[in-house]
């Protein structure tokens, strides 16, 4: 029997993709960060492993809606920084 592939929707482009292809952004105890393992505790939102989608997070303030709170620009900048660092 085939194993079911978990699907998630990117909050930036709204495309549904396999969970493994997306990056998880997690909110836990008012801390928001990239979860590259996909296993951290907290509320998760998924975004494509794509620079355009990551840039749209900040441009459209998408994490504010996903986590129902005000997310500071510094958090978006740190996520962008972590994403670019991961690509090397």
Identify the notable features of this structure and list them briefly.
alpha+beta, 27% strand, three-stranded antiparallel sheet, two-stranded antiparallel sheet
Question: Can you tell me about this structure?
Answer:
With 88 residues, this protein is of the alpha+beta class. The chain contains 3 helices and 5 strands; from the N terminus they run βββββααα. The strands form 2 sheets. It has a 3-stranded antiparallel beta sheet. The longest helix has 15 residues, at 73-87. It starts with 6 loop residues before the first strand and ends with a helix.
Oligomeric state of the chains?
single chain
**Beta-strand residue fraction:** 25-35%
Helical content stands at: 25-40%
What integer is the average pLDDT?
A: 92
Main sheet: strand order = 4-3-5
Structural class: alpha+beta
Which spans have pLDDT < 50 for at least 5 consecutive residues? none
The Rg value, from CA coordinates, equals: 13 Å
